[in-house]
Amino acid sequence: MNHESVQNNSAYILDVTNLGIDFGGLQALDDFNIQVKDREIVGLIGPNGAGKTTIFNLLTSVYQPSRGNIQVTGRSTKGKTPHEVSQFGIARTFQNIRLFKNISVIDNVKIALHNGMKYSMLSAILRLPSYWREEKAATKLALELLAVFNMQDLADQPAGSLPYGAQRRLEIVRALATNPKVLLLDEPAAGMNPSETAELMSTIRDIRDQFNMAIVLIEHDMSLVMGICERILVLNYGLIIAQGTPEEIKNSPVVIEAYLGQQRGE
Amino acid sequence: MKKEGLLNKTWFRYILNAACILLLFGLISILVSSGVVNRYQAMILIPVGYNIILATSLNLATGFLGQLPLGHAGFMSVGGYASALFSMAVDWPAAIEFPVALLIGGLVAAVFGMIIGLPALRLKGDYLAIITLGFGEIIRVIILNLKFTGGAFGLRGIENHTTLTSTFVWVVISLFVIFALIKSRHGRAIIAIRENEIATESVGISTTYYKMVAFSVSAFFAGIAGGLCAHYLTLLNAGDFGFMRSVEILVMVVLGGMGSIIGSVVAAIVLTLLPELLRGFSEYRLIIYSLLLVIMMIFRPSGLFGRYDFSLSNSLLKIKGKITNSSRKKGATHHES
Ligand SMILES: Nc1ncnc2c1ncn2[C@@H]1O[C@H](COP(=O)(O)OP(=O)(O)OP(=O)(O)O)[C@@H](O)[C@H]1O
Ligand SMILES: [Mg+2]
After folding, report:
1. End-to-end C-alpha distance for chain A, whole angstroms
2. pLDDT tens-place string over residues A199-243
3. Interface with chain B: mutation pick from A105, A111, A130, highest number of B CBs within 10 Å
4. Low-confidence spans in chain B with pLDDT less than 70
């Protein structure tokens, strides 16, 4: 791989400078900066349409930015496709769930283990030992990852048949299976009841400790955001309007204004 | 999670399936050699065979990859002409010449698959259908106008190499390769594209690469089928590989169930034998096909088999389960199972 670009860069897992994107006349995001360290949990909040999901789409190369730079584990994502950026060590879940619905839960996870396996197409067709060995290991690993959320018993169900909350959890497991350095969660608690949310909160912390990764999460549920994020960025109309610790954000007049302003408008 | 019993052992399943394939082949040979099935009836099994290959290979691109190519007959004709021209040009013993000719047909078709796939697979749905349809027609017109393909007179004097045995062997090879591919990390990547392209990319899989893989493997086997067809008919007419031929293959896939290999096999058998059985009606073949499709779309839109795939061992396990269950019930002890 490209050795230099890995070495001469910052200690940050994620290093974003002056990021911006326009959709036609709309400036959906501008002058966005974020540096995420190893094992950090960062929250991204803001009213509807603020540009939060757009940031995830930029970080994963689903969109190409109009301006600015993104470095994932020291490598620039400029001009890279989403699957290349994924291999840099970034994984995500989707606000509108995107599971492989018609196939089993375990195969959803095994698809994400694709690059963890190495056997060639010929080895697969000839059913060589490498095929059997790696498939067996992948099945075992997939079940272990499902166990993070206690989902191993659902392994043979079609993913689309799971309840909403379980589908969200499966998306996280699938993201973990790519062995990322930074995990992006887009509204992981959406549609969950308070007890599910509380459980999710402690699992997210466990994931960080067990897998040693940084986590950036978008969430509207303030109990979750305030409960686990070490640092929070607040976005409105595509601009960062505040950042700081949960305490600082809670008491920030700008943030209160942004949220109240929105409520008044609704 | 771990299940016990021979039927759950992978090696035993493979041996069981191999044994059944040999048994089936033995049965066909005995029926033919003893005269129960006459020579004419036996010959129809060859088109049945290459239609199975055509339907399952198209299913890889439609049912598993989730695209809608309409030029499968084009790949078939490219493969057919390539292998026929090769076998006519060289004079090797048939046992070597024929397999080599078929492989050449398959490879040439696969190369065409890649050339078409590169631009076509950037498009989706209807657009891909239209591009591949156009490709099929262009191929037909080019073949009609070239000298070395025999032009409008067709390619005549192809050696008659295709036997029941060679057809059977190639059907088994095609089915096994497609099955083995599907049940591997590469096949899962192909299925993932059908399910959700953005999510597939997000877990680090190149969707472009795997679309090309599925498309060229699909074209490869269409080419093999074309070669079998060429050395069976001993003459090739570009006109036989037009749009309607592509649609016929697609009908087999849709009727059998997109994403079901056993569905494609059954549909290919039925739709090849049906016109033969209804000799008098053969002019109405297309009407019957359309009717079948309409009826199917109304009553069973996902095809006869849906996405179901047959597994001998699993079926046996189910039967075994039923038997033990009913004997348990007789003992009047309700078990939760
Ligand atoms: N592909 C696109 N084309 C045009 N406009 C877009 C596109 N994607 C996002 N937008 C616009 O960019 C703005 C930000 O959208 P985004 O989805 O990032 O909001 P969000 O902060 O995630 O909101 P929510 O909380 O509702 O999910 C919106 O005005 C949206 O309409
Ligand atoms: Mg959003």
Report:
1. 51
2. 999 999 999 999 999 999 999 999 999 999 999 999 999 999 999
3. A111
4. 1-4, 125, 280-282, 326-337
Cβ contact, residue pair A143, B1, below 8 Å: yes
Same domain (yes/no): A194, A209 = yes
A179, A208, A238: which is the final residue of a domain?
A179
Give B36→chain A minimum CA distance, Å: 37
What pLDDT score does B190 carry?
97
Total number of domains constituting chain A? 2
Q: Which of residues 62-101 of B touch A (CB under 8 A)?
A: none
Instruction: Compute the distance between CA of residue A28 and CA of residue A15 in angstroms, rounded to an integer.
Output: 20
Question: Ligand 2 centroid vs B59 CA: distance in angstroms?
Answer: 37
Query: Which of A82, A107, A135 shows the shortest C-beta gap to B202?
Result: A82
Name A58's Cβ contacts closer than 8 Å, sequence gap at least 6: A19, A21, A29, A64, A65, A70
Chain B nearest C-alpha distance from A116 (Å): 10
Structural domain boundaries, residue A155: 101-179
Q: What is the pTM of this model?
A: 0.90
User: What is the identity of the amino acid at A226?
Assistant: M
| ipTM score for this prediction | 0.91
Token look-up 């049940």 returns B183
Tell me whether residue A1 is in a domain. no
